[in-house]
Design a protein that fits this description.
By secondary structure, this protein is of the alpha/beta class. The chain is built from 21 helices and 14 strands. A hairpin with a 2-residue loop joins strand 1 and strand 2.
Length: 595
């Protein structure tokens, strides 16, 4: 069923100031750490700014033919003390920033995971899992690296530039005029390149997400790929996506790397001009040799951070692009909230009524057309039809994974939109064709979803699902650890475990979506009684392709092209000799069913 465009997650473009403003919300709870970081950075940089002045004073204490060693030694010792204290401040600042970034990234990942649980099913139907995972891993790590390293360097650079400029003005305002030409050129060039580079980093993050999504998809279906001998084709497709990611990464890095060397050239140009004009001023007697030495050192400290900042621009642009993706996912539209007057489902009887419902995943593309159906409490209703006829879509509407676009779905004579979603969904137990098991013990997987169950309850459910003996044959029995969605057991065994899990949940309604599709015919017959016990007393919706499994249903609904074309019992539909009878005969003749 087509449920809309897949691929990469579309993210609205934001200005850097918008991204930074949103990121600041994560820093707000840690203001005291930020204040301490500023204090350490200011103190450390001030101490480092003292050294050039001390160096100049030591040089001035050297007179040709006469060196005042006690004065020189005193200045040297002060320089060593300042350097050691500055290094200590830098170390403490680095530790502090690591702690701050850890706290921020922890909260960011927590918000991402929380939003993931709030997202509607439609989001996961239309977006690649690998792309979402790329946001959690690559993009968050990129933001983390920027928080722990780049911000510290930026703060230190600002303080160093400001302090150096002040000291240079104190030494020689005339020499500072050299920077009146080179610094504006650096700023204009850096600003121009930043605007050109940021879209390239957006493209890099997007293509990496698309490649990760493709890899995740291929790894999950690797057996199928090998079974059909399509390795070469998928390798070619991967190379195409990988080349796109490499090309985007190259364009971003190559274009961004021009900024640093250019600004570095302007910085060295300013140093050359300072040396030239400083020498002329010294010859004119307007500045001492020690002050020239101090000025040159301060000019390096002044232009060095500007050069570093230019080199940081590429990393910052990458971090902003990554933060944009992270914030876009955090700010993504969650599942609509329940209406203020929504009620919890109480004493559910299981009477379901569909009244002239229509639905389409995309506007103007209707999938279900005027579906009407009444189900009494405790009835077993089987839904059959060709692939793509709308069977699973109908179940999605009953669970309110999607809302109808026309008509109404009723539960116990009340529109299901009047109920709280979570309360409504708790009235159902689902056993799906696509089994889901998590990394944990078999006992934990069976007990998942049920509260206050004992080990005896789990064993009883496993026996009813005819999986108990299989579990006992495993090395650790019920304590056997399942890996990677149950990859160390067969698909049929996984299906039986999910059936056992469903038997522990005492909900009034049950949905079986091809629940026995992964078990062989003999096993299917063995668990038939267990399935009947599971369905007893519940309103059941059964989607099945093997018609032999639903011949005893109270009502069989035959769908075709999004419409209900027939409805009745197995015998009634055979006597009608319509669509269902043709489907049944086709399976009977191929040996798939027995009358």
């Amino acid at each position: 069923m087509n449920r809309g465009p897949g691929g990469a997650f579309e993210r609205p473009k934001r200005r850097p100031t918008q991204v930074l403003r949103r990121l600041f919300q994560y820093f707000r709870p840690h203001l005291w750490l930020i204040v301490l970081a500023v204090v350490l950075s200011v103190a450390g940089n001030i101490l480092s700014l003292v050294s050039p002045r001390l160096s100049g004073a030591a040089i001035d204490a050297i007179i040709p033919g006469n060196v005042d060693f006690p004065v020189v030694l005193r200045y040297v010792l002060l320089m060593i003390l300042c350097a050691a204290a500055s290094a200590l401040m830098s170390y403490l600042l680095a530790r502090l920033m690591v702690r701050l970034s850890r706290s921020v990234v922890y909260q960011m990942r927590k918000d991402l995971f929380q939003r993931l649980g709030e997202m509607p099913v439609s989001f996961f139907d239309t977006h690649q899992t690998g792309d979402v995972i790329s946001v959690y891993s690559y993009d968050v790590d990129t933001v983390n690296a920027s928080l722990s390293n780049d911000l510290t360097q930026m703060l230190s650079s600002l303080i160093t530039v400001g302090g150096s400029l002040y000291m240079m003005l104190a030494l020689s305002p005339l020499l500072v005029l050299v920077f009146a030409v080179t610094i504006p050129l650096s700023l204009i060039f850096t600003r121009y390149r930043s605007k050109r580079v940021r879209p390239l980093y957006r493209a890099r993050s997007r293509t990496l997400g698309e490649m990760n999504g493709y890899v995740e998809e291929m790894v999950s279906g690797l057996k199928t790929v090998k079974a059909y001998g399509r390795e070469d084709i998928f390798q070619a497709q991967f190379e195409e996506k990988s080349n796109a990611a490499v090309e985007a990464n190259y364009n971003a890095d190559a274009f961004g790397s021009v900024t640093g060397p250019t600004v570095n050239f302007l910085s060295n140009l300013s140093l050359a001009l300072v040396s030239l004009f400083g020498a002329l001023m010294y010859m004119g007697g307007s500045i001492s040799l020690g002050n020239i030495s101090s000025f040159v050192l301060y000019s390096r400290k002044f232009s060095g951070p500007i050069n570093e900042f230019a080199n940081l621009i590429s990393e910052l642009q990458s971090a902003l692009a990554a933060a944009e993706r992270v914030l876009a996912l955090i700010d993504a539209e969650p599942e609509p909230a329940d209406s203020p007057d929504a009620l919890p489902v109480r004493d559910c009887q299981g009477a379901v009524s569909l009244r002239d419902i229509c639905f389409g995943y995309q506007p103007g593309q209707e999938i279900l057309h005027h579906i009407s159906l009444d189900v009494s409490p405790g009835q077993v209703v089987a839904i059959v039809g060709a692939t793509g006829c709308g069977k699973t879509t109908l179940i999605n509407l009953l669970m309110r994974f999607y809302d109808v676009t026309q008509g109404a779905a009723m539960l116990d004579s009340r529109d299901i939109r009047a109920y709280q979603r979570q309360s409504l969904r708790r009235q159902y137990t689902m056993v799906l064709q696509d089994t889901w098991l998590f990394e944990g013990t078999i006992y934990e997987n069976i007990a998942y979803g049920a509260q206050d169950v004992t080990r005896d309850d789990v064993i009883a459910a496993a026996k009813a699902a005819h999986i108990h003996q299989t579990i006992l044959s495993l090395p650790q029995g019920y304590d056997t650890l399942l890996t990677g969605d149950g990859g160390n057991i067969s698909k049929g065994q996984k299906q039986l475990l999910t059936i056992a899990r469903a038997m522990l949940v005492k909900s009034p309604m049950l949905i079986l979506d091809e629940a026995t599709s992964n078990v062989d015919t003999q096993t299917e017959k063995i668990i038939a009684d267990a399935m009947l016990a599971l369905m007893r007393g519940r309103t059941c919706f059964v989607i099945a392709h093997r018609l032999s499994t639903i011949v005893g249903a109270d009502k069989i609904v035959c769908m075709q092209a999004g419409r209900i074309v027939e409805s009745g019992t197995h015998r009634e539909l055979l006597q009608r000799n319509g669509v269902y009878a043709a489907m049944y005969r086709a399976q009977f003749e191929s040996g798939q069913v027995e009358d």
